[in-house]
Amino acid sequence: MTLAGKKVVVIGGSSGIGLATAELAKKEGADVIIASRSAAKLDPVAERLKVTAIPTDVTSDQSVADLFRRTGPVDHVVLTAAQLRTGPFKTVAMDDVRATMEGKFWGAWRVAREAEIRPGGSLTLVTGFLSVRPRPNSAIISAANGALESLARALALELAPVRVNAVSPGVIDTPIRAAMPEAARKEMLAKTAAALPVGRVGMAEDIARQIGSFMSNGFATGSIVYVDGGALVN
User: What sequence ranges are listed for the domain Ketoreductase (predicted)?
Assistant: First the structure.
């Protein structure tokens, strides 16, 4: 199965994994639509890739509904967008906890409900390996990721013949880590790479290739694939 001529919507497509996925789909000949909250980030990417940009806030019922009203029926939807806020379990603000679930879990729920995906098409969610390998100060992210993976399995049944899968990345070097001081970021990535069987951290393109496989493989549904450089077996 090829993506040539297929309509692909990538929510979170202005940077990181979403951008890499949009680039992959475009190279394969898809009609690509990218969406994210910031028009300022979207527009330059859309111009460079020669794709359509639609500003969308996944925390808003109306914004998500407007997105899919404008796209009409589509073949594949990929959701990488999330606004994550976390901290120590006992002290993290409840507003931050709710915001994380609102963006990552309920955002996916809204997208799955509103998207009109053609039979045999796909919805791919991006979770994260903290769902099965939690760490301190990230309980809400672990919970949100685990909930998304359960949702993917349930929707594979409920939305069939639309296929629903999830990709669960390990540590990926994407712009989301740019908020860290550069020296600390490099040190963290180097330590992580040294501990992994593959000897490096992931890149956005690594995850995009798995997403591309889910879009093109008509026999894949209800699957959760961990792309983590071997972290779960290390």
Answer: 6-175
DSSP 142: H
Interval 173-231: pLDDT, tens = 876 666 667 888 888 889 989 999 999 999 999 999 999 999 999 999 999 999 999 98
pTM (global) more than 0.85: yes
Terminus-to-terminus CA distance in the chain, angstroms?
Answer: 34
State how far the Cα of 7 lies from the Cα of 220, in Å rounded to an integer: 19
DSSP, residue by residue, 177-204? GGGS-HHHHHHHHHHHHHHSTTSS-B-H
Closest CA relative to residue 204, chosen from 165, 164, 171, 166: 171
pLDDT at 197: 93
- The most confident of 24-28, 78-82, 170-174, 190-194, by mean pLDDT: 24-28
What are the CA-CA distances from residue 58 to residues 112, 132, 174 (Å)? 11, 25, 20
Q: How far apart are CA 93 and CA 233, in angstroms?
A: 33
Structure tokens at 217: 């493989």
Q: How many residues belong to the chain?
A: 234
3-state secondary structure of 124: strand
155 vs 139: CA distance, rounded Å: 24
Please answer whether residues 73 and 116 qualify as being in contact, where contact means their C-beta atoms are separated by less than 8 angstroms: yes
CATH of domain 7-227: 3.40.50.720
Select from 76, 59, 68, 108 the least CA-distant residue to 10.
Answer: 76
Nearest alpha-carbon partner for 85 in 147, 139, 146, 132 = 139
